[in-house]
Amino acid sequence: MRFAAIVAALLVPTATLAAEIFVQAGANGTLTFTPNSVTAQAGDTISVQFMTKNHTFTQSTFASPCTNISDAGLDSGFQFVAANATSIPQFSFNVVNASAPLWFYCRQANHCAQGMVFAVNPSPQKTFDAFKANALASANAPASASGSAGATTVGASSTSGASSTAGASSSASESPSASASPAANAGFKTHATSAVLLSGLGLVAGLIL
Ligand SMILES: *[C@@H]1O[C@H](CO)[C@@H](O)[C@H](O)[C@H]1NC(C)=O
Ligand SMILES: *[C@@H]1O[C@H](CO)[C@@H](O)[C@H](O)[C@H]1NC(C)=O
Ligand SMILES: *[C@@H]1O[C@H](CO)[C@@H](O)[C@H](O)[C@H]1NC(C)=O
Ligand SMILES: *[C@@H]1O[C@H](CO)[C@@H](O)[C@H](O)[C@H]1NC(C)=O
Ligand SMILES: *[C@@H]1O[C@H](CO)[C@@H](O)[C@H](O)[C@H]1NC(C)=O
Ligand SMILES: [Cu+2]
User: Fold this and answer.
1) Residues 50 and 26 sit within 8 Å (Cβ to Cβ)
2) What is the Å distance from ligand 4's center to 60 Cα?
3) Do the strands 37-38 and 117-120 form a parallel or antiparallel pair, or are they unpaired?
4) What's the DSSP call for residue 3?
5) SS3 sequence of 159-190
6) What are the two backbone dihedrals, phi and then psi, of residue 194, each rounded to the nearest 5 degrees?
7) Which of 84, 123, 137, 76 is nearest to 104 (CA)?
8) What pLDDT digit, counting tens, does each position of 160-205 carry?
9) How far apart are CA 186 and CA 184, in angstroms?
10) Of 145, 151, 93, 141, which Cα lies nearest the Cα of 118?
11) Does the CB atom of residue 71 touch ligand 4 within 6 A?
């Protein structure tokens, strides 16, 4: 009996193939992530494809959508896509803990305050709509004061964004006032940014020209 139970437990994860979920940044020249919210299982890969302009995909928090979560959060860096580009950058990461919502924004100029935000596994308590409303409400915040932003996070441990397991104490996402250690927020695992040929994107290829 016990043996059978263990075998079943081992087989289930392999039977459920991890999915790759695609998200487009700046599709059709818009200041959006499309879709702007996804539901992912642990092990799924989320691949952000930068379609136009010069956006970032940067981790933030529910309470402060337009501010870096910490120095250890995910950040694609600026991904410039020329109008005549024949390939586009793709930034991918793995979801490690499906119970921990992940929040993202674009840190280019005022894109976030215009609603360029994205969520993985928002919850009934912390919905995507409430997150986006927080972002829109930050419209009056100073745009790119590089010195003063990031105030919600504490001292930068030197862990890179690739630290995956991160004993995820739930305090970070449950109590917004607790300044989380970077590791506590990591429900993800990074990949390298790669390039994707536009011709491989079919539909999208014509739109960028
Ligand atoms: C981009 O344009 C195509 C074709 O009009 C449309 O199908 C698609 O939904 C648009 N995407 C966005 C994010 O506006
Ligand atoms: C992309 O945007 C960033 C921030 O505004 C800027 O520093 C960078 O020069 C831009 N890249 C290109 C190629 O325009
Ligand atoms: C794209 O346009 C830029 C500026 O107009 C030009 O310098 C570059 O060579 C072009 N690249 C391709 C692949 O056509
Ligand atoms: C946000 O994080 C990125 C990547 O670590 C960094 O380059 C940028 O300066 C940070 N921005 C602020 C306002 O802290
Ligand atoms: C996953 O995240 C939830 C919510 O933050 C947390 O309660 C739980 O402990 C985490 N699980 C693991 C295995 O880290
Ligand atoms: Cu942007």
Assistant:
1) yes
2) 11
3) parallel
4) H
5) CCCCCCCCCCCCHHHHCCCCCCCHHHHCCEEE
6) -130, 175
7) 76
8) 333 332 222 222 222 222 223 333 346 677 776 788 777 555 333 3
9) 6
10) 93
11) yes
User: pTM of this prediction?
Assistant: 0.76
CA–centroid distance, 170 to ligand 5, in Å, is: 6
Question: Contact 187/100 with Cβ under 8 angstroms?
Answer: yes
Degrees to nearest 5, angle at CA 194 with 191 and 195:
160
Joined together, the tokens standing for residue 99 give 């119970």
> How far from each other are the two terminal CA atoms of the chain, in whole angstroms?
61
Pocket of ligand 5 (CB under 6 A): 97, 99-100, 168, 170, 173
C-alpha–C-alpha distance, residues 57 and 190, integer Å = 12
